[in-house]
Amino acid sequence: MTGQSHNKHSTIRALSISAVMLDGFPPLVKQLPVVLLFTIAILVSLIVPTARITSVPALIAATVLLAVATGLAGFLPRVDLGERSVLVVPVIDFLVIGVLRFATGESSSIFASLAILPAVWIAASPGRRHIAYAFVGVLGGLLVPFLLGSTLENNPNEIARGLFSACAFTMAAAVVNDLVRLARVNISDLQAKEQATLTELQRAFVVQQALLPTSGMGATGYDFAGMCLPSKAISGDFFDWYTASNGIAITLGDVMGKGVGAGIIAATVRAVVRSARNHDDLAIALDRASDALATDLADASTFATMFHARLDENTGIVRYIDAGHGLTIHVRAEGAWSRLTSFDLPIGLISDEAWTVAQFRLEPGDTLVSCSDGILDLYDGTVESLQHIADIVDSSEDAADVLDRVRAVITGADLTDDDITVVVLRRLAV
């Protein structure tokens, strides 16, 4: 029973939204069916023997009136006289249909049903009064032949026929009016929900950005900078740096996927990695993060690549684990660069292999740059694109300048549909 009720509600909503789409069309688009069917009516009257033209002047007058109505349909929205001013077009259409009937046999004309088009047009406007307007329009259009010379003697049932047709068309207009009313309510609800969702996403974005470090660690002789540009409201990337046991920890992670789900997982991984800050063994942080993904977040069926390092600011030694990331480079002061090899699988994938800890020395003037794969899409999408990042580093004055130059590339390129995250650590030259 609940399912039937839900289906019924869905059907009504679909019909109502379809109806309001009619009201949302430009007046000229609404006028086109009238023009098309009027043209067909002329052709039928010329070709079909039983359909005849009884008054050529009236037919010419109807054609001129239709041209005027169509012209107004295109002109009135441009002068912005208000929505009501456009209703003059279906009013003229009622007159056109009445004159057309007079020109094609009066009571024997087969084109009286054309009045449904302007009736629906008017009924789609907000307010119950438009149902009455549609009734008056249909009835008036059907009685136009009497103003042009028809008599009850020649058409004894025309008044009754016109009244009955007006009532029938008005019932259809009432249905359209009600569907449009329901549609406006539904659309208003949908817009309110969408706005609430956007507000929540904006709050989530603010919180996520607040979790990212915004200033250096105060480490003498070192310069830190980082940015995270999400492709959607929430990023599946993150970067971090903080004081840890025997040095400064630097992390960049890239969760599979994008959007809110990836952002939640990224926040979880960041927190788990940070929980190991008091341990000198880098593998502990990766173990905890991988366990969280493989067990606690098993239903999410996801994984994350990660570069996690520990800097000894006294010696410049950087120990690191690269878990399936492979997008970190060491740019030397003289401009030469090398990519740090990734030895291990991403976190979240079950493996009995121990994490591989490697190290290198960051000499004065050297720079460490780690980025997410979104940066590759700014170029040719291959790992060789890191050459461009190395060139940017070589021509930059400091870590912040590196990010400014990367932002300039992003601004000048077709934006990638992936998150872009970059973290920069430069050892200042002596």
From TrEMBL:
<feature type="transmembrane region" description="Helical">
    <location>
        <begin position="32"/>
        <end position="51"/>
    </location>
</feature>
<keyword id="KW-1133">Transmembrane helix</keyword>
<dbReference type="GO" id="GO:0016791">
    <property type="term" value="F:phosphatase activity"/>
</dbReference>
<feature type="domain" description="PPM-type phosphatase">
    <location>
        <begin position="219"/>
        <end position="427"/>
    </location>
</feature>
<dbReference type="InterPro" id="IPR001932">
    <property type="entry name" value="PPM-type_phosphatase-like_dom"/>
</dbReference>
<dbReference type="InterPro" id="IPR036457">
    <property type="entry name" value="PPM-type-like_dom_sf"/>
</dbReference>
<keyword id="KW-0378">Hydrolase</keyword>
<keyword id="KW-0472">Membrane</keyword>
<protein>
    <submittedName>
        <fullName>Stage II sporulation protein E (SpoIIE)</fullName>
    </submittedName>
</protein>
<dbReference type="Pfam" id="PF07228">
    <property type="entry name" value="SpoIIE"/>
</dbReference>
<keyword id="KW-0812">Transmembrane</keyword>
<feature type="transmembrane region" description="Helical">
    <location>
        <begin position="57"/>
        <end position="76"/>
    </location>
</feature>
<dbReference type="InterPro" id="IPR052016">
    <property type="entry name" value="Bact_Sigma-Reg"/>
</dbReference>
<feature type="transmembrane region" description="Helical">
    <location>
        <begin position="108"/>
        <end position="124"/>
    </location>
</feature>
<feature type="transmembrane region" description="Helical">
    <location>
        <begin position="131"/>
        <end position="148"/>
    </location>
</feature>
